[in-house]
């Protein structure tokens, strides 16, 4: 195979060039206004450790390994919430996995973006959150 190998930094740069990323404050505002759907792709262990987006924002929890199937237009595993007329904001812990995920959704025709610096930025921005002890208790 003579193809040029890419680094993960290259993959991220290519993915992020296909859409406009947004900061946590803007993401929280768009979700609160009902303009966008927030999709949290973090594994359960991260949600348990770091907390979750507050339930009043109705985040959709989707495992990263099935995300594309849940948004595929006309696909048999597509979720009813996957309305292509509504923007999708993908959230991971630090903003790396969400960039690759958002890129794939864009390729499927979804108006998708992700949160710069992920859930860590979400918390730092004071966006609605439940801490892990609030979720467990």
UniProtKB/TrEMBL annotation:
Pfam families: Rhodanese
Source domain of life: Bacteria
Organism, as annotated: Kineosphaera limosa NBRC 100340
Protein's name in the database: Rhodanese domain-containing protein
Residues in Rhodanese domain copies: 32-131
InterPro entries named among the record's database cross-references: Rhodanese-like_dom, Rhodanese-like_dom_sf
